[in-house]
Amino acid sequence: MTQTKIAGIGMYVPANVVTNNDLAQVMDTSDAWILERTGITQRRYATRFEETSAIMGVKAAKIAIENAGITAQDIDFIVFATLSPDYYFPGCGVLLQRMMNMKEIAALDIRNQCTGFIYGLSIADQFVKTGMYKNVLLVGAEVHSYGLDFSNKGRNVSVIFGDGAGAVVLQPASKQGQGILSTHLHSNGNGAEVLSMINPGFHGGCYNAEKKPQQPAKPYGNMFITPDRIRQDDFYPFMDGQSVFKKAVEKFPEVIQEALQANGYKANDINMLIPHQANLRISQFVQHKLQLRDDQVYNNIQRYGNTTAASIPIALYEAWQEGKIKEGNLVCLAAFGSGYTWGSALIRW
Ligand code: ACO
């Protein structure tokens, strides 16, 4: 069976930089607190209505498609991973299909939060391997900033997340041994509420200017449940940070080892590990546990915060742009997040 290669990568982040000191103006926090606990110095926040998950996904996709040397017309399957879709439904995949004037191809949305990109990669891989599709566009995009609680109550969550998008084009590998070697997916719903949001709180998308709400209702954009019928807190993400931390540092190394063992490799064989950018402390813990050198792990959460489904393709793009991923390299992608869900992919570049 043919293996699947990553033929092109792209990313997009909003121009609006929000530093830790900016956040300290609106809530009781500090640059020192955020830096020490998360490693984050700044993140990007989208411009409402102009930079939605779908719109940013399009911008990242255009770069990935160009880098793959194809056109949007060549794409035969869209996989879109996001926890912050423009609409509660339909998903972002069809919005991207429309904005990019693509053919009437299949579009699938994935709701697996921080592991969304790995789940998407695994799904895309199956379709390419079997020969069903030849050019799959996989997008991870998030707009967190519209839906965070910027009061002191939500500060443990709101300082962590940022907005952005990343995309890859997947094709049948052209060389023997090249491409995705294996993917490994897991979940355990016992942790479902530990990092969760009960109701949709994102309303980014509004393609018709006349439909822009004059005074957006807060909680945003829920068609079915009016704010007076539900607790306001249910529209904000909730996180028990310490529980997430403990589970993440257990599952990240486990799922990376699973990918290595499945292919007969050891941690030291990895040329580049791109962990989901959850928290710099989590990445450092994983690096230490696997005894990897600094040059074997790529992190950019310092500049973008945690962009959930977008974080791996954004980091992959920057690592590749900086020449840190070269042909023949063994690249490992791994994620852990809400669900709980976790997963990994091992790729011969
Ligand atoms: N600024 C200042 N103080 C804060 C902030 C803030 N932004 N947030 C919380 N605090 C305060 C709390 O109120 C508490 O004060 P108290 O002791 O007076 O009650 C104190 O800091 C400690 O609070 P904790 O929530 O226990 O803080 P902790 O040390 O656990 O750090 C953090 C919180 C950074 C979220 C940490 O638990 C963590 O990193 N968890 C991992 C979660 C994570 O990475 N999530 C990413 C998303 S999930 C994913 O992508 C895998």
TrEMBL record:
Pathway: Lipid metabolism; fatty acid biosynthesis. This is Beta-ketoacyl-[acyl-carrier-protein] synthase III. Belongs to the thiolase-like superfamily. FabH family. Keywords: Acyltransferase, Cytoplasm, Fatty acid biosynthesis, Fatty acid metabolism, Lipid biosynthesis, Lipid metabolism, Multifunctional enzyme, Transferase. Residues 260-349 form the Beta-ketoacyl-[acyl-carrier-protein] synthase III C-terminal domain. It comes from Panacibacter ginsenosidivorans. It is an enzyme of class 2 (transferase). It comes from the Bacteria. SUPFAM superfamilies: Thiolase-like. Homodimer. Its EC number is 2.3.1.180. The gene is fabH. The last Arg residue of the ACP-binding site is essential for the weak association between ACP/AcpP and FabH. It is found in: Cytoplasm. PANTHER family: 3-OXOACYL-[ACYL-CARRIER-PROTEIN] SYNTHASE 3, BETA-KETOACYL-[ACYL-CARRIER-PROTEIN] SYNTHASE III. One of its GO terms (molecular function) is beta-ketoacyl-acyl-carrier-protein synthase III activity. InterPro entries: ACP_syn_III_C, ACP_syn_III_N, FabH, Thiolase-like. It holds the Pfam family ACP_syn_III. Residues 277-281 are annotated as: ACP-binding. GO terms for biological process: fatty acid biosynthetic process; secondary metabolite biosynthetic process. NCBIfam families: fabH (TIGR00747), PRK09352.1 (NF006829). Catalyzes the condensation reaction of fatty acid synthesis by the addition to an acyl acceptor of two carbons from malonyl-ACP. Catalyzes the first condensation reaction which initiates fatty acid synthesis and may therefore play a role in governing the total rate of fatty acid production. Possesses both acetoacetyl-ACP synthase and acetyl transacylase activities. Its substrate specificity determines the biosynthesis of branched-chain and/or straight-chain of fatty acids. It catalyses: malonyl-[ACP] + acetyl-CoA + H(+) = 3-oxobutanoyl-[ACP] + CO2 + CoA.
